[in-house]
Amino acid sequence: MIGKVSSRLLGISLLLIAAGCNKTDTGGAIDAGGSAVAPTPAVIQGACPKVFLLDGTAIHTSYAGAKDDPTKLVYQATLVDTTRQCVQNESQLVMTVVVQGRVVSGPAGSAGTINLPIRVAATDGENTLFSELTQYPVTIQPGAGASQFLFTKANIALPGGAGSFAKVYVGFDEGPQAKKKK
Question: Mean pLDDT across the stretch 28-44?
């Protein structure tokens, strides 16, 4: 009898510990002066949408002239890894996405700052919940040939409850192609 009760208590204790790992305390606090402090939003990783890098948008190349000529390559940028954090408030899930990338200077490249067109988009099936294009500056140091960078997009607001179904995509987006004149 005692063994059954203690095993049940152990099981319940483990469930409570596991539940505590998914959400931080959102209760208000009292500061040293005795005043009430506003509650801190809960950091929720379990309901935080996953971030995806698509094969077609994870590499960006820039050429000085013909795109098929490797001697005209100015630089090649690559997105390689992601992480994210979500905070839940009363009505929405607010995300921060961080992406690691690398830029390699080509034969036609030189040291200096380039702007990489990075788009962050969140979808829920067919619906676009968020989409923003950022021109992110990256500096290639003289003689380095390659530079690493961390792109951070904060304050991505998604509707409350979207975390279960939403997907976040990060990639290079050059925008619509310019129309050729006749």
Answer: 55
Element of type H or E holding 36: strand 36-37
Q: What is the distance between the alpha carbons of residues 181 and 174, in angstroms, rounded to a whole number? A: 20
Mean residue pLDDT of the chain comes to 78
3-state helix, strand, coil in the chain (%, to 5): 15, 50, 35
Sign of the alpha-carbon dihedral angle for 166, 171, 175, 177: negative
**What six digits make up the tokens of 46?**
């379990």
Q: What is the pLDDT of residue 142?
A: 85
- 92-132 pLDDT, tens per residue? 889 999 999 999 999 988 889 999 999 999 998 888 999 99
Tokens 């203690």, located at residue = 6
Catalogue all structural domains in the chain, each as residue range(s) with its CATH number.
42-172 (2.60.40)
